[in-house]
Design brief:
170 residues, mainly alpha
Length: 170
């Protein structure tokens, strides 16, 4: 990160000067890492005619966050579980299950995605409101805040970008 901070200190902005506003420096680096990742992934989505798939994955991530929050609050065994990791695991499982169903049926991708998306959002709302509360408590996890991104998360995004590039090339 020190190299990044050094490069940014060459910029003529107040926030880029050494020793201040690290949140802005982290946000800029996150944008620079995530932009090519989204470019590659969106190309794959459009090429495979699965433009509705990202919406369905978002719904499955919501369900994963609801499950992760429920697990971490309801059972002591899962007290340290981060809902974001449960969301990622649920979304990956969702994508794999979608692929299996899509290959074994003659249904169009959009049809299967629609069924999966509706199921995921319904299950997510059901789980999130089990205690009688509102599901708006998950907004910070679902929408996020680019200004609060941490260097560890930027490293994780860079690793994901590297994996996607390797899969794209191979």
């Amino acid at each position: 990160m020190e190299l990044w901070y050094g490069l940014l200190s060459l910029l003529p902005f107040d926030w880029a000067q050494p020793g201040q506003m690290y949140f802005m420096k982290h946000a800029l680096l996150a944008v620079l890492v995530i932009s090519p990742l989204f470019g590659l992934l969106s190309t794959m989505v459009v090429t495979n005619r699965m433009s509705f798939f990202s919406d369905a994955l978002g719904h499955s991530a919501f369900t994963g966050i609801a499950i992760g929050t429920l697990l971490s609050s309801a059972w002591r065994l899962f007290a340290g579980v981060d809902p974001m990791w449960v969301a990622v695991l649920f979304a990956v499982g969702f994508a794999l299950l979608f692929s299996v169903v899509r290959r074994r049926t003659n249904l169009a991708s959009d049809t299967v995605i629609g069924v999966f998306s509706s199921t995921a959002v319904a299950l997510g709302i059901f789980i999130a409101t089990l205690d009688g509360g509102s599901f708006t408590k998950f907004n910070a996890l679902l929408i996020g805040d680019i200004l609060s991104v941490e260097p560890v998360k930027i490293g994780l995004m860079a690793l994901i970008l590297l994996v996607v590039i390797l899969l794209w090339v191979c």
